[in-house]
Hints:
Elements (H helix, E strand, L loop, with lengths): L19 E5 L3 E6 L5 E2 L9 E11 L3 E2 L4 E11 L4 E4 L28 E5 L4 H6 E4 L31 E5 H4 L6
Parallel strand pairs: 2-4, 3-4, 4-6, 5-7, 6-8, 7-9, 8-10
Antiparallel strand pairs: 1-2
Amino acid sequence: MSDPPSTGPFAPGQCPSDDWSCFAGNDVLLVLNTGEESLSLDNLQFKQKTCLIYSENVTLGRDLALPGKNLGIFCCSFQLLSSNATISVSGQSGDPGIPVVEGKPNPGKDGMLAGTIWLYVEEMSESLARSLKLVADGGDGGSGGLTNDLNNPTGGAGGAGQDGGGLSSKLAAQIGRLCQC
Length: 181
């Protein structure tokens, strides 16, 4: 991932301000932004398993990969700063088994579970709906290790692939106005 931002809620030591606040718990990072300035997801990094973002305006200028993490984005407007972008919480693939010269071949490592994406955009544009891709694929299992041992002519077993995560998106225009931004 890229370097952390120098300002804003995702920069070290930057919480809180008059416009935003965040709470970092053991397993959840909560970001609240009520300011006029858009909250950029471009440098989003977090240690917790889950990040929940509540913001008036959100922007994304490039692909965002958060392997195995859970990400909730709840906003009035979401603007892409590029023609297409992907938010991925797909699980990482497992490592291949280590090759051996003699003896039993090593199995591949299991893939990792995917995370979940929750996306609620009050004012979803048609171009955003076409241009933003959400991905939550389970990680592939690693290939089994090779061997040169004539007594064990087959390679090791491959690692198990993992289940995909969840995707949930709500378009306010489709379900009616529930709140006023």
